[in-house]
Amino acid sequence: MSLDSSVWLFQSLYAVGLAIWLTIAVIDNLRGFRELVHAVGVTMSMTSLQRPPAIHSILSERALTSVRWHRLAVSVLLVLKCVALLACWIGCYLLLIGGGLEQARPWLNVALSAFTGCLLAMHLGGLWFAYWIREDDLQRGHLALLIWTLGSFFLFNGRWA
């Protein structure tokens, strides 16, 4: 196997894995929309700060308790994930069957951009609602996913051979 072929194989496997991950995430988000709205609502309403021992912070003024805001936030995240999902599958098709990385790269970059937008919205929204105080595992998860997308960008846009 040549170096070019082995790089293509790894990029293809990675792209398909990302597309499958996004597919599962979108399916889960659609099926569990109400639960996701509730989970996002916990962060946006800052209710975790009220758990014993309660943390009193000036940042609590930012809390949004309206379910409408929670639904809107989840809807925006879902739209971004759907854009990422569709662009990623188009990129996979072009990478595997259509014409190679040169044709697939713009679509994979759109997918990564939409996914990064979604992740930054969650991360920056979480920072706004002080999730780092009681939901630090969630913050670490968002950071790990951002690192994953950054690595993916370099994988698809680097010159490897």
The tally of structural domains comes to: 1
Order of helices and strands: HHHHHH
Tell me the helix content: over 70%
Major sheet: none
Low-confidence stretches: none
Indicate the proportion of strand residues. under 5%
Give the number of DSSP strands: 0
Give the distance, in angstroms, between the N- and C-terminal Cα atoms: 13 Å
Mean pLDDT: 95
Cα-based radius of gyration, to the nearest Å = 19 Å
What would the principal axes of the Cα set say about the shape?
A: elongated
Please work out how many helical segments DSSP would assign.
6
Structural class of the helix and strand makeup? mainly alpha
Element layout with pairings:
Blueprint: H1 3-31, H2 33-45, H3 67-98, H4 101-128, H5 131-134, H6 136-157
Please tag this protein with its features.
mainly alpha, single chain, 6 helices, 161 residues
What does this structure look like?
Helices cover 80% and strands 0% of the residues. By secondary structure, it is mostly helical. The longest helix has 32 residues, at 67-98. The chain is elongated.
Put the structure in a nutshell.
This protein has helices spanning 3-31, 33-45, 67-98, 101-128, 131-134, 136-157.
